[in-house]
Amino acid sequence: MNDTLETPCPETQGQFLVAALYHFVSFPRFAEFREPLQLVCNENGVKGTLLLAHEGINGTIAGSDEGIAAVLAYLRAQPEFGRLEHKESRASSMPFLRMKVRLKKEIVTMGVENIDPNRVVGTYVEPKDWNALISDPGTLVIDTRNDYETAIGVFRGAVDPKTKSFREFPDWVRNNTGLHTKPKIAMYCTGGIRCEKATAFMKEQGFEEVFHLKGGILKYLEEVPPEESLWDGACFVFDERVSVTQGLQEGEHTLCHACRQPLTPEELLSPFHEEGVSCVHCHGARTDEDRERYRERQRQITLAKKRGERHLGS
Fold first, then answer.
1. Residue 126, C-beta contacts closer than 8 angstroms, at least 6 positions apart
2. Active-site residue, selected from the candidate residues 189, 195, 235, 282
3. Predicted confidence (pLDDT) per residue in 224-261, tens digit
4. Is 189 one of the annotated active-site residues of the chain?
5. CA 151 to CA 268: how far, in whole Å?
6. Mean pLDDT of the 94-118 span
7. Residues 113-137: pLDDT tens digits?
8. Which of 241, 234, 194 is nearest to 213 (CA)?
9. What pLDDT does 304 receive?
10. How crowded is residue 42: how many other Cβ atoms within 10 Å of its Cβ?
11. Three-state SS across the chain?
12. Is the torsion defined by CA of 212, 214, 218, 220 positive or negative?
């Protein structure tokens, strides 16, 4: 991937540039790096979330082209992040409320000790070669994302573990002996980071031919022409765009702010949908007290919008 930012094509034009990034590296000084990184982001008008841990960096940020370029240049000037790669997309409005640089035990939480993608990891597969791999009858395709993500889009023929969080994935693998029925395992996730640990874990479990999509779904949707795509649906993203589609166009989904489930335009028409209060997925799981509390929060959000402000609870 080029280190310089390219001029976006007309199909992906948007006022804000969104950069998704991660890098596994030994980073013992991660705690002392938090404040300088926060300052650089603030000075350049960049918002989003970046996670720092002993094992590296992970996150998504958004801002002007110049602001994102400045933050990426600052990161790549660090000896640990000289080979940092990122993926770009566009947003018509700022997709984050604030800038957060957080310290974590893991940059992606799997909860398994001694999983190090720098030591052992699956074989990377470029987006242009992905279709051939997953179309091979000898390949078992596994989606490593969570259930609310897979609900709106998957690769054809993929196995969906239906996990609530990535922490559940190791037990799902251990409890599914049927995963050994095919010689090849092909794994994918949104931007590639979960597969770094997922493929490392699979290798540790004795699976030999383990592959993963380099750059994740986002890179595939960016590079593979729609007429050749084996992706069905939209890809969930962790910002206010909610989803993106082929060519990284903004999707039609919105988010239920009560349960955080993505909603289709059709689901917004459900009698169970009340903005900020409930949706078809969570209405039955909420009490009257819950709904009244959410209604009050939504009232505050509406008032903030009328004042031209953004309510932090939104």
1. 214
2. 189
3. 999 999 999 999 999 999 999 999 999 999 999 889 89
4. yes
5. 16
6. 94
7. 989 999 999 999 999 999 999 999 9
8. 194
9. 74
10. 13
11. CCCCCCCCCHHHCCCEEEEEEEEECCCCCHHHHHHHHHHHHHHCCCEEEEEEECCEEEEEEEECHHHHHHHHHHHHCCHHHCCCEEEEEEECCCCCCCEEEEECCCCCCCCCCCCCCCCCCCEEECHHHHHHHHHCCCEEEEECCEHHHHCCEEECCCECCCECCHHHHHHHHHCCHHHHHCCEEEEECCCCHHHHHHHHHHHHCCCCEEEEECCHHHHHHHHCCHHHCCEEECEECCCCCCEECHHHCECCCEECCCCCCEECCCHHHCCCCECCCECCCCHHHCCHHHHHHHHHHHHHHHHHHHCCCCCCCC
12. negative
Torsion of CA 87, 18, 197, 223, to 10 degrees: -30
What digits encode the pLDDT tens for the residues 144-197?
Answer: 999 999 999 999 999 999 999 999 999 999 999 889 999 999 999 999 999 999
Give the number of residues written for the chain.
Answer: 314
Instruction: Summarize the confidence of residues 73-84 as an average pLDDT.
Output: 97
Say yes or no to pLDDT of 5 above 60: no
Pairing of strands 184-188, 99-103: unpaired
